[in-house]
Amino acid sequence: MGESEKSTSEPLLYVDGEYLPISKARVSPLDQGFLLGDGIFDVVSAWKGKIFKLEEHLDRFFDSIRAARLETRLSKNDWIEVILETVRRNKLPDASIRFILTRGVPDGVVADPRKITPTEIVWVAPYVFLADEQKRIEGIRLMISATRGFTPDTLDPRFKCLDRLNSQLIRLEALEAGYDDALWLDSHGYVSEAAASNIFLVKKGALYTPQTGILMGITRGTVMECASRAGVECIESPLTSFDLYSADEVFTCSTAGGVLPVKEIAGRKIPQPVPGPITSKVDKLYWEMRDAGEYCTII
Ligand SMILES: Cc1ncc(COP(=O)(O)O)c(C=O)c1O
């Protein structure tokens, strides 16, 4: 897709078999996704006309669907086709692509969740970075929220589900307190993840990241691969806020912009220049991987 083909018209969504302009697309107010947060979604990004790790995102989507006992009428290949077609119709070479499956519309107030037809949606928007350019260079200020994340014995954080109230609460808490983002701890005080990204720290030349109680971020996996290519050891381990306070480098990562350096955590400044050398190296390798078209699906 070339520059000249970029979209200027109204965005199109895929909803239950139809491609519709956003002003005409409708989901019922009785949809369980809306009423209960009863649904699964995933977000993948396109950059310079190439979608990164689409199959991995779909694997995660299908794992969550199965775990949530949802049904989709579309096979994995059908989802790929529909996603590609929606991106093509929107003519966005750099895009944030959200695909959503909800339980659907019940036939009564107390409906049997096994007997509802699901709602399937693909929404393509211009690519967004989680932080503006200055913060991507200088680093963000991260707080540690008083809100604890879900644990695997409640709502396993590996569900990429529509119920995101906890993420919104910690984001609001962070913004109200003048921070850029917040992370939460699990119920035992171990570091989990930020509102919409995973977290890494660097200590004495090695990378550390939590292993459990988190969404298995696709970018997290990519960061680990970049670290391995750079010869940097990466250790999945329980971490506490003390580990973050005393780290040499800290960064978050997500589909919305890859690696994002952190310059301050809960009032403790990172003592060395931000971004640090390992953060910069991993970030560079991440974008090189994408530019080279590795793990990419051409739109
Ligand atoms: C809670 C949470 N953790 C981590 C991530 C990062 O996941 P990914 O790298 O797959 O975008 C997200 C992304 O939205 C998220 O919501």
Description:
Helix content is 28%, strand content 27%. With 299 residues, the protein is α+β, with helices and mostly antiparallel strands. It has two domains: 117 residues, 2-Layer Sandwich (D-amino Acid Aminotransferase, Chain A, domain 1); 158 residues, Alpha-Beta Barrel (D-amino Acid Aminotransferase, Chain A, domain 2). The radius of gyration is 20 Å and the shape is globular. Strands 7, 8, 9, 10, 11, 12, 13, 14 and 15 form a nine-stranded mixed beta sheet that branches. 41% of the residues are buried. Bound molecules: pyridoxal-5'-phosphate.
Short overview:
With 299 residues, the chain is an alpha+beta fold. The protein has helices at residues 32-36, 54-67, 76-90, 133-138, 165-176, 218-229, 241-245, 277-291; strands at 12-15, 18-21, 39-47, 50-52, 95-102, 119-126, 140-144, 181-185, 191-194, 198-203, 206-209, 234-236, 249-254, 258-265, 268-269, 296-298. The chain has two domains: 10-126, D-amino Acid Aminotransferase, Chain A, domain 1; 133-290, Alpha-Beta Barrel (D-amino Acid Aminotransferase, Chain A, domain 2).
Secondary structure elements and their pairing?
Layout: E1 12-15, E2 18-21, H1 32-36, E3 39-47, E4 50-52, H2 54-67, H3 76-90, E5 95-102, E6 119-126, H4 133-138, E7 140-144, H5 165-176, E8 181-185, E9 191-194, E10 198-203, E11 206-209, H6 218-229, E12 234-236, H7 241-245, E13 249-254, E14 258-265, E15 268-269, H8 277-291, E16 296-298
Parallel strand pairs: 7-8, 7-14, 11-12
Antiparallel strand pairs: 1-2, 1-6, 3-4, 3-5, 4-16, 5-6, 8-9, 10-11, 10-13, 13-14, 14-15
Helix pairs in contact: 6-8
The structure holds pyridoxal-5'-phosphate.
